Amino acid sequence: MNALTSAEAQQIRQVRDQVSDEEWQLRVDLAACYRLVALYGWSDLVFTHISARIPGPEHHFLINPYGLMFDEITASSLVKVDMACNKLIDSPYPVNPAGFVIHSCIHAAREDVQCVLHTHSRAGVAVSAQKCGVLPISQQSTFVLASLAYHDYEGVAVRDDEQPRLQQDLGGNNYLMLRNHGLLTVGKTVADAFLHMYTFENACRIQIDAQAGGELVQVNPQILQGLTQVMKKVTTGLGANIAWPALLRKLDRESPGYAQ
Predict the structure, then answer these.
(1) pLDDT at position 14, please?
(2) Distances (CA, A) of 231 to 123, 136, 196, 204, 226
């Protein structure tokens, strides 16, 4: 890893000194999530977003500095904004208010959600363009289907009038397929949102691959019942935390610097 310049080191100190320990940990987790999305090949240059709500009564959020690639994002470079995407801490980086349209309305409607993760991956967009949507043809798809909603395409998501329909379509689900657009997951933690997206993305990749072969075998609908309890057993009650520490170790090896 290259040594930090004095300006970079000063920026890290300035941000760290202005935020709570809780917010700093959230920054580290969110920066790690951006790096992981890049590492797994789900990013679309600079054109999607992952947002996280900072704990507390204020509706304050962290979002990516617009223009940085996901594998460049660090804890200190994340931008702190309010519901209108106004900066709350001075930052040399721009933000993209239009990109916060989807995220802000979901955070507003879902108090249980800390993180909203949106991608334009090749497999995700491909399945979002299929009339059938996600098919029950893999173990991964069964977990998605247990909490999946759909939202029809209304053009590039920059209009506030689309927000109520996004909120209504997502409802209490953890997975949202944006038709002709991509994938979105939510989670009570950054780790939860990432694990949901990992499962969602793999379900879509498997579906595209399987459709290139012979006749598909679908999962018995009865198996789709009670999957919440099944997932708790699979993760030994830890949820995404069963994998998150290992993912951070992977980043420390392959994309260090995210915690700066």
Answers:
(1) 87
(2) 24, 17, 11, 19, 9
